[in-house]
Each structure stands twice: as C-alpha cells, then as structure tokens.
Design a protein that fits this description.
433 residues; alpha+beta; 7-stranded mixed sheet; 6-stranded mixed beta barrel; 14 helices; 30% helix; disordered N terminus
C-alpha cells in the first residue's frame, strides 16, 4: 500500500507525461513509484534561483529519464512557465510543491510559489490565483493585492479590422524610440512601443486628455522591481493598425517626476502585456534607423519549451546572447535607446576580447529620480539568438547581478531588424525580407 501523498505524486507524474509527449521532459519523468524524489542538486538549484534562464534551458535539454530530482522537475516547470506552456507548468509545479513539502529549503519553496504566481499572471487568471489557499499565495503588500484584484475585473480583447494598415511607420525614425500613431478611445495618439515595460503607462495629463476615469490606486513593481504607488484607470479602446484592444488596464504614476517622464515620451507607453497580443511583430531597420513596425499572424510550429528562442519572465521578453562562447539571458527593451551590461561582464572579457572603455554617457531609466553617469564599452561583439552583431558605446552598470544585461534599440539597429513571434516564442534578429 502506498500513502495518499505518494499516490498524488504518482498521479501528477502521469499527468505530466500526458502533457509532454515525445519530449525530453516526458522521458525524464515516468509513472512508477520511484519517478520523482525530493533530492536537491545544489548546482541546478543555483541555476533555478539565478536569472540566466537560457542556461537553465540548456540544462533541461540534457535531461534523461533518469533525471527525476525535484530540482530537475522545477527546472522543467520554470522553462514551461516562461514559454507560456500553462498546463505543463501548472502540473509540474504541483509536483514540485508536493516534493518540496518533505524538505526544509524555504527559499526554493518561495521560488516555486512565485513561479505559480507568474503562471497565473501570464494567463491573466488573477481570480484563479486569489482562489488558492492563503498559505499557498505570496505575501504581497496589501496595495499590490488590490492591483491583482482590479486586473481581474476585465481583460483586453483583440479584434482585427479588415482594410486597416498592418505596416506602421515610426513617427521618430531619427530619434531613440519607436513611436507609433494610433487611436486611444477613437482619438489620435502617439504611442511608445516598449517591450521593457510590462505595464501600459499613461501620464496624468494624457489620462485627462483622453477622459479616463480614475478608478483606484495600487502598488505595482517599478523599473527596479521595487513596489511603487500608481493610480490606475482603463481605456475603452486602443487601436494600432488593424488591431483594436478593448478594456485596457492603464497605470498612471503618482510620483510627479515619474509622471513627467511618462508625459515626455508621448501620449502613452504601450507595455509588453499588450504588445504580445499582436501575435507577431516585425521591426524594420534601414540605414541604422528603425523605420516601421508590422504586425503579422504566425503559424503555430510547436517548437517545445526546450527550443524556444524567447522566454518571457514577469511579462518581459528575454533573449539569449553569447559572449566569447558564454551564454547570457538579456531583456530586450525597445523603449531603451542603448544597451547595457554589468561591470562584471566587461571585466570578465576585457582581456580575452580586447574590450576598451568608451566615452562616458549619462542615462536615466524610466521611473528613476535622476540620471547617472556611466562608463561604456567602446565596442562589444556578441551573438544574439544566432545573429552576430557588434554594439558600440554599451553602458556599464555596477549591479548585484554579475550577469545583468539588456538590449536596447541600438541592438535592433545593429542587427538590421527584429522579428518577434509571440505564438512560437521566437525572436529573430537580422534583416527582414
């Protein structure tokens, strides 16, 4: 006789097998009583708790049917969650929670709890998350809970308009941003296309201009992952080209300096949560200027979590870069003019690649109180998802994360273009034919 806990674990393993046919992950978890264990591999644990998601993806490609530890299961679950394989992630996370109950690794338990939240959040199933038992929820600030609750009220719905353009010219091709013309509540608007922001933002002045009602206040995560106060409202309609979205939640900064920064960018900053609803986006470059954005409808290819070339972490797109043969995971931020790496990355490859310091530059991240003076890398060769590019005057930041990096609009220009496929989770750098 086996106990009820063991029976539940076996059933979860069998369900994971059903969801992952013909894959490395399915072979790695089979349906016998020894299929899973609460053994924690310290090296895999460090990968799981770090931010180099593509290193973790490389690890799951190596898994065999004999890899049944809880850390192997969490690794599979994490990559599943980051490619929006919701069912696969959900069932693997349930199995991980059951196995971790037998351990005293509180940090890993909290990490799995956060992955559960990310999985619900990516589906915009906030009520589903709130329906979980209290002891299974993350201890967010009360004001952040209000943010979760208000986002459950209504979600965006996309509709396609026949005859409307799919090719949208950049209103500021000589500038640092991708600025598109659209309609907010049927009125003309300039909209910043910003994959580096998970939220869609609007200044208080624009909210008044488009007659948006103030519907409350909440806390959401700011640019540096800190909690900060925002007012929030809701658009009736937002149209870009042939796509219209309705009932769009919008965040309005309460901080005067942050509010002014948002106002200076245009009428609205369109965040990644709403950008990814386009399905597919091509960003065209000509003579190192971003000329236009075109929406397209991708064909489902069923690549599988282990083959995705784009991961989505906390509603932000992550791509793989290779520097001198080493793998890093970088946010791609279309709202940032320039790319950044950590000071640690510069020092690591300074001699091997002959990297040199460039001119110092000033930079201010959206939401920060003041600009900072940064050292730069004069010339940085790297490979982004298989495409070789060279970045110039790359900012260097001293960061607690030694592997910190993100790619700005300069990376798209250097590559000659970028194609986002949010259905198959791919990001292809290079000229678009």
């Amino acid at each position: 006789m086996i106990g009820m806990r063991a029976f539940k674990i076996i059933m979860l393993v069998m369900w994971a097998m059903f969801l992952w046919p013909d894959s490395v992950e399915a072979k790695a978890i089979n349906s016998n009583t020894e299929a899973a264990s609460d053994v924690i591999d310290p090296q895999v644990r460090a990968l799981i708790l770090g931010r180099n998601f593509f290193k973790l993806q490389h690890y799951i490609r190596t898994l065999s049917e004999n890899d049944r530890s809880v850390t192997a299961i969490i690794a599979r679950a994490q990559i599943s969650a980051l490619v929006y394989d919701f069912e696969g992630a959900s069932n693997l996370l349930q199995l991980a929670e059951a196995l971790l109950a037998n351990t005293d690794d509180e940090r890993l338990k909290r990490h799995v709890s956060f992955l559960v939240y990310l999985n619900y959040s990516a589906q915009e199933d906030y009520q589903g998350y709130l329906n979980r038992p209290e002891d299974k929820q993350i201890s967010f600030p009360t004001a952040y809970k209000r943010e979760i609750q208000r986002r459950n009220v209504s979600g965006p719905v996309a509709a396609t308009f026949e005859g409307a353009p799919v090719y949208l010219e950049n209103m500021t091709p000589d500038g640092p941003y991708i600025m598109l013309g659209g309609l907010i509540n049927d009125k003309a608007a300039s909209i910043l296309f910003d994959t580096g922001s998970d939220q869609t933002l609007m200044s208080s002045g624009s909210a008044e201009k488009y007659r948006l009602p103030a519907t409350g206040e909440a806390q959401i995560t700011g640019p540096a992952a800190e909690f900060r106060n925002f007012g929030f409202s809701q658009l009736d309609t937002l149209q870009l080209g042939n796509v219209q979205q309705v009932s769009i939640p919008v965040s309005v900064p309460i901080s005067k300096s942050f509010d002014q920064q948002v106002a200076d960018t245009g009428d609205m900053i369109m965040g990644f949560r709403d950008i990814r609803r386009f399905g597919g986006v091509k960003i065209f470059v000509d003579e190192e200027k971003i000329k236009a954005v075109e929406r397209f409808t991708p064909v489902l290819a069923k690549l599988g979590p282990q083959n995705a070339s784009m991961l989505i972490y906390n509603s932000k797109p992550i791509v793989q870069i290779d520097i001198n043969g080493d793998v890093y995971s970088c946010l791609i931020d279309t709202g940032a003019p320039s790319s950044f790496v950590s000071e640690a990355i510069f020092r690591k490859y300074k001699n091997a690649l002959g990297l040199k310091s460039g001119k110092k530059t000033r930079s201010q991240l959206l939401g920060t109180e003041k600009s900072e003076k940064l050292k730069t890398v004069k010339r940085l060769p790297l490979i982004v998802n298989g495409a070789s590019i060279t970045l110039r005057q790359v900012g260097r930041r001293r960061n607690s994360d030694a592997e910190y990096c993100f790619l700005g609009a300069d990376a798209i220009k250097a590559a000659g273009g970028l194609t986002f496929d949010f259905i198959n989770m791919t990001a292809q750098f290079g000229q678009i034919n």
